[in-house]
Amino acid sequence: MGERTRRFNWLSTPLGSTEGWPQCLRTTVGNLLRSKFPMLLFWGDDLIQFYNDAYRPSLGNEGKHPAALGQRGEECWPEIWTEIHPLIMQVQSTGEATWSEDQLLPIFRNGKLEEVYWTFSYSAALDDMGNQAGVLVTCMETTEKVLNFKQLGDSRNQLEFAIESMELATWDLNPHTKQFLSNDRLKEWFGLPLQTETLLSSALDVIDPEDVQRVKEAIQHALEPSSGGLLDIEYTILNPANDYSRIVRAKGRACFKTQNIPYRFNGTLQDITAHATAHKSAGK
After folding, report:
1. Does the pLDDT of residue 152 top 80, yes or no?
2. Do 125 and 246 fall within a single domain?
3. What is the pTM of this model?
């Protein structure tokens, strides 16, 4: 961009020959071109544009580059001018910088209009007399980050839908404190209070005495690295709140640190009472 800027025909713009540029413009453009951070400069009443190599990729292909260099801001950004022009005017009138984070500003690039997210700041660029002469834009495209967060949110919503539709109980055990988080369904099944965390011992107390030792051993085995961290076991819950007996299948996986120390153990419970009872009756 430094080479393009030097070779550009500035006589075709309101700025005229570079020999007549004020020192402040020379200095600002020089700093911009040397910076490794994406920058764009609007200068003068016509808001003539300069930008650097770090900013160049955000313009994509078959879009605004290289025409954006030396172009009026309004001509370059018709699709977002109603959003960014008020920010430019705000900086020019107040001298105070602006800050926007992960803002959607669709731009034309790569041959089409794309939804692009930006985190950016507009700040005043001064002339040799200390007056407002332009607006310096420092920015970072955050499209990938925003879309990843959206995808993560969609995945989380899909998981929550699957849990609800399958009527699963969920748990997340801290192997060190022996406390676990769970959804309300699990607490309801075990007759546990709806508090933030629950002691593992409180849940074990609710398991049928004939199954409890087997469950303890299965949990301990899953917390050993040689097991692969897997848990898959069926047992009976005897809810002390309503004396309801429920047969569940617990499936989970433990996660280990590099030293083979378990740091997380989570999974699901499925009510298989009807299936287990029918299977038992068929066996008889």
Report:
1. no
2. no
3. 0.55
